[in-house]
Automatic annotation (TrEMBL):
Name the UniProt record assigns to this protein: Protein MIX23
Organism: Nomascus leucogenys (Northern white-cheeked gibbon)
Classification of source organism: Eukaryota, Metazoa, Chordata, Craniata, Vertebrata
InterPro entries the UniProt entry points to: MIX23
Pfam family, one: MIX23
Cellular-component GO terms for this entry: mitochondrial intermembrane space
Family: Belongs to the MIX23 family.
PANTHER family in alphabetical order: COILED-COIL DOMAIN-CONTAINING PROTEIN 58, PROTEIN MIX23
Amino acid sequence: MAAPSGGVNCEEFAEFQLMAAHASRDRVIKNCIAQTSAVVKNLREEREKNLDDLTLLKQLRKEQTKLKWMQSELNVEEVVNDRSWKVFNERCRIHFKPPKNE
């Protein structure tokens, strides 16, 4: 991908595409983590009431695994975000300096 020819293109890309995409993915992943955490909490409470229910234990383990995957996805997203900003800065540093809030 070649650097855009003018400052406006880099600025628009940074503000409207890169920042918005990262914020959107971050928000969605955190929402999924919150929902799954609530499910895990409820299952733990049910499990404490009924220690003999193996189906409940299996479901709890499944949800805990899902939660760990989502948390690891958030870490992956942070790496992707850092790398995309690095590439953006390498390609567009002549044309535009993004704000420091990324």
